[in-house]
Amino acid sequence: MRVEHPRIDTKMGKIRTVIACGDRAYARRLEELMKHAGGEAQFEVVAVCYDGICVMEQVVKRELELLVIDLILPRLDGGAVLAKLKDRYKGRPPFYVLVLSDEEEYRYVKYAFRCGVHGFYSKREGEEEFLSALDTVLRGKKYLSSGLRLSPPLRERHGREEKKRDALHQCDVLMLLTKREMEVLKLLIEGFSTEEIAHRLYISKNTAKAHKNRILKKLGMHSVGDLVQYFRDNRVLLNS
């Protein structure tokens, strides 16, 4: 059964917020915008992260009420962070999550909401739209940028999918893999070692190993054995 996220009482103090964005200038602009935001909601930006590792560290050591996170982050990308948060909290994180993205395709929106986020903001929108996104999310409602409004059939389908158990979570994560990572993934599933993969793809062993490690992080798995077992049980995913 889906549990609704509790609303934050914006009159009870400042909303502890972490901003995560690889573009430092854009992150600082958002920070200034939130500091001077009008209305009842008052924000305290407790940390600004420029990579995904920093986000995970901040989540562990701080009691957050809001995370504003870009999908594109170095070291650990935003999509992988969302997947880890979903696993860590066994579903929806205990704080609001507003995703920032340059991408406006439905697949990115769907992936984000499957990970339990509360809003999806297109960075092509203006400052007023960003403040509207924050206001909507903090009122306990789902938010989509005006340029991303789904048609009624898609919105209805999105609502149905959100209520289902997320058994195909890894299928969505595959959308975040690069073309090269998909090539390495398929060879790993077929049982090739990193040395063999390096030889077949004409890359160095270290590069093959780096691809393998990024794949494991993005899919939230700990070993190649986990990968093999998962895709044996879900063969259709690699062909979808």
What does this structure look like?
The chain has 240 residues and is an alpha/beta fold. It folds into 2 domains: 149 residues, Response regulator (Rossmann fold, 3-Layer(aba) Sandwich); 63 residues, Arc Repressor Mutant, subunit A, CATH 1.10.10. It is built from 12 helices and 6 strands. The protein has a 6-stranded parallel beta sheet with strand order 2-1-3-4-5-6, sandwiched between helices. β5, α5 and β6 form a beta-alpha-beta unit. It is elongated and about 60 Å long.
Number of strands: 6
- Structural class based on helices, strands and sheet pairing: alpha/beta
| CATH level 1 class label of the largest domain | Alpha Beta
Going by CATH, the homologous superfamily of the largest domain would be Response regulator
Beta content comes to 5-15%
Specify the CATH architecture of the largest domain. 3-Layer(aba) Sandwich
Number of domains: 2
**Which range best describes the helical content: under 10%, 10-25%, 25-40%, 40-55%, 55-70% or over 70%?**
40-55%
Largest sheet, spatial ordering of strands: 2-1-3-4-5-6
Give the ordered list of helices and strands.
EHEHEHEHEHEHHHHHHH
Return Rg in Å.
19 Å
Tell me the overall shape. elongated
Oligomeric state as shown: single chain
What integer is the average pLDDT? 78
In whole angstroms, the N-to-C terminal distance is 28 Å
> Quick one: biggest sheet?
6 strands, parallel
The number of helices is 12
The CATH topology assignment of the largest domain is Rossmann fold
Poorly predicted tracts of residues: 1-10, 149-170
